[in-house]
DNA sequence: AGGATAGCCTGCGGGC
DNA sequence: TGCCCGCAGGCTATCC
């Protein structure tokens, strides 16, 4: 499932393919994967324009788990992969995989190729905007700072005053953008913090440990091409290489790699959560602390 | 207010 | 072998 590292890996790889390329036309299959209220017009030709038909790709951007393709004339296509979404580059003649919802025909120099948005479960989607400002005001503005580049001061500010647990706070994209179930569990284990520890109760040194874990793990995962559970594969179909390094995720009932304790599991914030009850103690805030 | 719950959706794996 | 059911999870809407 694509979290921040998978999306960043995709962004870099895809950018090498499509930066500077011309988008000739677009074919939208399922209309309900698209929200184009951020672009003017109501006709089909307006919709295709919103989907970047007849444009040239300037750059690719990312915030949290979302990616944006920006054209030279300022149009924006925001892609959110959700649970099962992926982007694929293929020859136009190549058979389309099941659940291919949108295809763009591109040309770079003499080379013609197709970019495809595929998403079986359709938790992902496409959003269009007629300017970067509208992307920021209408969509990305609601997100917290990007988790890959957060620092302890910012982390502290984001968690300050929150009574909710760390797990549910870190999963909340409005608090910090980019973390999903896997990396939250991994980061909490590495920083030895309990998933239910109230987010606002952390001491400075714990904030620093947490930040270092979050940023460190994300960059490690980016370097290795993302995590793999079931369905994740990059543009060329290579699975991510990070899954073997999960220390707690998917290891409920197995031994903690640090202390040998059997790893605990429970539903926390409505997500399957795995942690070590010995290494990650729930610390009740004492009355005389502040 | 904010926490819990349901719903969206398909693929897959365990159990029978 | 084959079928059925439960689970996986990001995000939103709704309820309490």
Question: How does this structure look, described?
Answer:
The structure is a single chain. This protein has 290 residues and is an alpha+beta fold. It folds into 2 domains: 4-141, Alpha-Beta Barrel (N-terminal domain of MutM-like DNA repair proteins); 152-275, Helicase, Ruva Protein, domain 3, CATH 1.10.8. It contains 7 helices and 11 strands. It has helices at 4-18, 44-50, 132-138, 152-159, 166-171, 181-190, 204-223; strands at 22-28, 34-38, 55-63, 66-71, 76-80, 86-90, 100-108, 111-118, 125-129, 264-268, 271-275. It has a 9-stranded mixed sheet, with helices on both faces. It has a two-stranded antiparallel sheet with strand order 10-11. The longest helix is centred in the last third of the chain and has 20 residues, at 204-223. The protein is elongated, with a radius of gyration of 21 Å. The protein binds a DNA duplex (16 and 16 nucleotides) through loops.
Question: Helix and strand string, N-terminal first?
Answer: HEEHEEEEEEEHHHHHEE
CATH topology of the largest domain: N-terminal domain of MutM-like DNA repair proteins
Low-confidence stretches: 228-232
* Class computed from helices, strands and strand pairing: alpha+beta
Computed CA radius of gyration, to the nearest angstrom: 21 Å
Average pLDDT, to the nearest integer?
A: 89
> Architecture of the largest domain, according to CATH?
Alpha-Beta Barrel
Proportion of residues in β-strands: 15-25%
**Helical percent range?**
25-40%
Number of helices: 7
CATH level 4 superfamily of the largest domain? MutM-like, N-terminal
Please tell me the total number of domains.
Answer: 2
**Total number of strands:** 11
The CATH class of the largest domain is Alpha Beta
Strand order of the largest sheet: 2-9-5-4-3-1-7-8-6
């Amino acid at each position: 499932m694509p979290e921040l590292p998978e999306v960043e890996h995709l962004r870099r790889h895809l950018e090498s393919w499509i930066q500077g390329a011309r988008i000739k036309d677009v074919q939208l299959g399922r209309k309900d994967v698209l929200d184009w209220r951020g672009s003017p017009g109501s006709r089909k030709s307006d919709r295709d324009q919103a989907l970047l038909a007849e444009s040239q790709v300037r750059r690719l951007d990312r915030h949290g788990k979302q990616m944006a393709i920006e054209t030279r004339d300022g149009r924006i296509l925001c892609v959110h992969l959700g649970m099962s979404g992926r982007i694929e580059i293929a020859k136009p003649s190549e058979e389309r995989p099941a659940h291919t919802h949108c295809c763009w025909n591109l040309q770079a120099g003499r080379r013609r190729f197709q970019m495809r948005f595929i998403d079986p479960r359709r938790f992902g989607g496409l959003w269009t905007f007629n300017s970067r400002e509208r992307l920021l005001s209408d969509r990305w503005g609601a997100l917290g700072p990007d988790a890959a580049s957060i620092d302890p001061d910012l982390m502290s500010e984001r968690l300050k005053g929150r009574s909710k647990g760390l797990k549910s706070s870190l999963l909340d994209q409005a608090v910090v953008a980019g973390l999903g179930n896997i990396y939250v569990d991994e980061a909490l284990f590495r920083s030895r913090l309990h998933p239910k520890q109230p987010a606002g109760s952390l001491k400075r040194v714990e904030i620093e440990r947490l930040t270092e874990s979050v940023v460190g793990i994300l960059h490690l995962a980016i370097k290795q091409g993302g995590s793999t559970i079931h369905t994740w594969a990059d543009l060329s179909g290579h699975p991510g290489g990070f899954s073997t390094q999960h220390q707690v995720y998917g290891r409920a009932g197995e031994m903690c790699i640090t202390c040998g304790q059997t790893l605990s599991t429970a539903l926390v914030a409505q997500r399957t959560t795995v942690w070590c009850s010995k290494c990650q103690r729930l610390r009740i805030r004492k009355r005389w602390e502040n």
